[in-house]
Amino acid sequence: MGADLPGVAAGFVDRCRAAGLPVGPDGAQRFAGAVVAVAPGTAARLLSCARATLVSDPAQLPLLDAVFAEVFGGLTDDVRRGDPTAPPTEDGKPDDGAGPGRRVGGAAGGGAPRGAPGGRGKGPAREVGMPVAASGAERLADRDFDALGPDELALLAVAMRRFRLATPPRRSRRTRRAAHGQHVDLRRTLRAARRTGGDPVRLARRARRSVPRRLVVLCDISGSMEPWARALLQLLYCATGAQRAEVFTFATRLTRLTRVMARTSPAVALERAARLAPDWSGGTRIGEALGRFLDLHGGGMARGAVVLVVSDGWETGDPAELARQMARLRRRAHRIVWANPRTRHAGYRPLVGGMAAAWPYCDAVVSAHRLDALDELVAALRGAGRDSRPAG
């Protein structure tokens, strides 16, 4: 038996909130009230209820539609669910549009409506069951990012939230209480000694904290990288919340996007990033962009950090300049990971151009070209395993 509408509505609101939509308890209450009042007979009408009650900004519509498609993507809209005037099926009963094993109608055996307001209509109760077909994200997992449209990319936002871009830990200068720390906490030791007549019977100790290393992302937004840049910037938003990563884009110039990508939905973040970076889909000068980053931020931001470079390595500048800047970055960064979607081909070799110049300075090179290849990127950032570069 399918779940009643208010129950399904509550579950759908939870999925929207997990995907990044700012839906509070009042929005959930409005949506549940709208569902009960309208008793939508089609997925389209249910989507209209969601749009009217859960969205406060038109820019949030693509994300809402993506979550709706993932949750209710198995429902059909060509006939009205539970409508007695719908064309009959092979067994002579009105078609409810739900297909075998999935109903959008009343309880089994024609029982009383569940969750429907009293006195509304005489037809069978409408229930929306959760789709049993594979989710949209699962269907897109093995497709390259450059083959996905904007709506399909937005659908992957929910799936990308299961990833966690963790970096290796480092020892901080700050300390914490520890039973067997290397440093004596004099203040706490003397405070405790007041209870033992001034004799420090027990030494209080402290140890240095371990904190994750900073993640710095340099993303190529040239014309050849535009589809993958959008996908990986969306991954950064979904997997880190954008507050623990420093994000820069480059093509012919360097643009910092850290603040732009904070506290908003992935679709809005990408739209703002495209407006802020005037060289989006332009040429590529990787060496010049790296030099600019190191001159402005290399002293503090790159030191001891994990640096992720997202680029196909097509350099329009001098490859020797790129090699020189990569050597500078190598001396400051803890780890350099290069995400190049063209390495997905088994026969790829860095023989010429910018990738050949950068290759010796990378700790790992991964493809990250589709959803089911992102685990390799996550492991490379974490420092798991050995050098993951193909043989040069």
Automatic annotation (TrEMBL):
Bias (Gly residues): 98-122
One Pfam family, short name: VWA_CoxE
Chain residue ranges for the region called Disordered: 77-128
SMART domains: VWA
Domain VWFA positions: 212-377
Domain of life: Bacteria
Gene3D superfamilies, per database record: von Willebrand factor, type A domain
Protein name according to UniProt: VWA domain-containing protein
Highest classification ranks of the organism: Bacteria, Bacillati, Actinomycetota, Actinomycetes, Pseudonocardiales
